[in-house]
Input
Amino acid sequence: MKPILFHLLHEPIYSYPLLMGLGWGVGYNITASLWSQAKLPEKVLKAFFILTFVIAWIGAKAFFLIFSAPEKALDYSKEINFWMGGGFVFYGGLVFAGLFAVLFFKFQKGLDLSHLGLVTPGVALGHAIGRVGCLLAGCCFGDQCDLPIAITVNGLSRHPVQIYESIGLVVIFFILKWLWKKRRDPLMMLSSYMLSYSTLRMINEFFRGDSIRGIHYGLSTSQWVSVVIFIMGTVVHFKAIKES
Output
């Protein structure tokens, strides 16, 4: 793994925050392009992006405290290094940001909930880039395996689940872009993202062995979140079909 990519003026440039920031930047630019094509106000997108960034950051940290370190949650929450350093849970950021986005799109003049779909291609590709940061940082690794594609972590061969997910997210990105080109239906894009990513995450978790966040009735916490998102995505999908 390579947690430090290089040094700039004798200062280390860490791979995870760099690629996470790159992912946000790429995601914003993709969304801005679709936003412009839908003839929506750019100022609204900028405000939404800034607020979503902050709320997603808090959500990602909150899920880590709740599910990965509940016994140290109070201590960690007081440390600036925790809030500015590692310890992110993507689903935490997605849930917090998603709830905020629903409220924002519902009450913002000129927008409706269907426009949420315009954000999904940027989320997918930005997330794919961020997962490469996970790989380089040496976190979120999978169960032990003896496959030729295995990565070595602490002397053990493990599933490169970050790469599995990153590749899957790139595929989802192209599917969503194709849907936009073919149908111009943001609601269908939203449902397709929810269904496809929750399925990808459900499968990937079997190779990840994410027991640190808890196993309940044979499934990890992330898999149960995936089940909820899949059900919600199914409802949105039928709504999209009905309105098309």
